[in-house]
């Protein structure tokens, strides 16, 4: 917990007065939202957009100003977590089920900063099941096509029912074990009719990864370089 908290607090240091900030989802993003709330209450003036209803509600709780997407042309910085990060700063995201909205924010941000603890670092992506958001219509056919890519997959469940995203879609959790060429897999997933978005976030859109360690230290990754 301390590692995530420190990484999130470091990411918040990049936020400057007057910025438009994208708020990610999940446990690490929660620490960033809390840290931002403290800065807002101390006088920082920012506008925020959130990638999930949960993050939106948390931001309101901490007094953070939220704006409608229609009022924006772009986003200065988005801060979010990840489920896996490889050495090239490719990510798996979507463990919380908000991958579509998270990717929209990341794509439209001048800077996309990812905060993780060191347990999320991997040599090759794939141990964590890759989430893929799909439409409910003919979901079994979409699952069949995903399986043809070499994975086992099933619809995510919550409380004995299909998990439904904030967009009214389903999440297919795909177990690849190893994803050797994430760029190619991402293309093949997105070509399947019924797929809305995949949980592979590729390194060109990842500007910085801040990694927290249990001993309180941090290290930084950017592209294929470590700082």
Please give a handful of descriptors for the protein shown:
227 residues; alpha/beta; Rossmann fold; Alpha-Beta Plaits; seven-stranded mixed β-sheet; four-stranded antiparallel β-sheet; 16 strands; disordered C terminus
Describe this structure in words.
- The protein is built from six helices and 16 strands.
- With 227 residues, it is α/β, with parallel strands linked by helices.
- The chain has two domains: 2-122 and 202-213, Rossmann fold; 130-196, 2-Layer Sandwich (Alpha-Beta Plaits), CATH 3.30.70.
- The strands form four sheets. The chain has a seven-stranded mixed β-sheet with strand order 2-1-3-6-14-15-16. The chain has a four-stranded antiparallel β-sheet with strand order 8-11-7-12. The protein has a three-stranded antiparallel β-sheet with strand order 4-5-13, covered by helices on one side.
- A hairpin with a 2-residue loop joins strand 9 and strand 10.
- 46% of the residues are buried.
